[in-house]
Structure formats: structure tokens, C-alpha cells
Amino acid sequence: MPKAYLISAYHEIHDQDALAAYAKLALPSLTGAGGTFLARGMPAAAKESGKMQRTVLIQFDSLQAALAAYDSPGYQEAMRALGNNAVVRDIRIIEGV
After folding, report:
1. Which pLDDT does position 46 carry in this prediction?
2. Distance separating alpha carbons of residues 20 and 1, to the nearest angstrom
3. Count of H helices and E strands in the chain?
4. Beta bridge partners of 95
5. CATH class for domain 4-42+52-95?
6. Of the residues 62, 80, 82, 95, which has the maximum number of CB atoms within 10 A of its CB?
């Protein structure tokens, strides 16, 4: 079964305190659901149409595990900590090859 990846690109961060509250809840929720953080932070370089924006890459054992982690009550609680305006981000869940 192929691995799956949750990729989050932060286009804008408006509230650092809300982001910190989110991270405090999201980290244990996602790792508890089997996620492994492979990378997080600012890119070393942005090429072609890339943008210098905070990016997070999390690996899961399967697509089903990644989707379940995102939908889990713990992660949904973390997302509520962000409120509606703390960040603008793009989250993608993709299956590995």
C-alpha cells in the first residue's frame, strides 16, 4: 500500500498566537494518528513559480490514514484554534507512487 502525504502551504499568516495554539493541538493529534513530520518551515529555495512560504510535509502509512487524521476530532479541534482569519493556507493530501 502506498504512503500518503499531507502538504500544507501557508500563503498568509495573520495571527501568530492562533497559529501557535493550533500547532500545540495539531502536532499530537497528527502524530497520534500515525503521521510523521518530514519537513516544516520556510523553504531553502523557491524555484519556477514557487513562493517563499511556510510549508509542512507529513507522511502517513496510507491515504485512508491521512484522510482519517485530517477528519479526526483532535485535528478538527486544532483547526478551530485557528479561527477563520488566522491563516490562509492550501492543504493537499496526496497518495505516493
Report:
1. 96
2. 34
3. 3, 4
4. 4
5. alpha beta
6. 82
Give residues with Cβ within 8 angstroms of 7, minimum separation 6: 55, 56, 57, 58, 91, 92, 93, 94
> What separation in angstroms does the CA of 23 have from each of 5, 18, 65, 67, 92?
18, 9, 20, 18, 18
**Sheet containing strand 4-13, strands side by side:** 36-41, 55-60, 4-13, 87-95
Beta bridge partners of 56: 8, 40
* Distances 15 to 53, 54, 86, 90 between C-alpha atoms, Å: 15, 14, 5, 17
Report the pLDDT averaged over residues 79-85: 93
17 φ, ψ to 5°? -65, -40
Alpha helices in 1-72 (DSSP H): 16-32, 63-71
Name the nearest CA neighbour of 13 among 5, 4, 22: 22
Q: pTM (2 decimals)?
A: 0.93
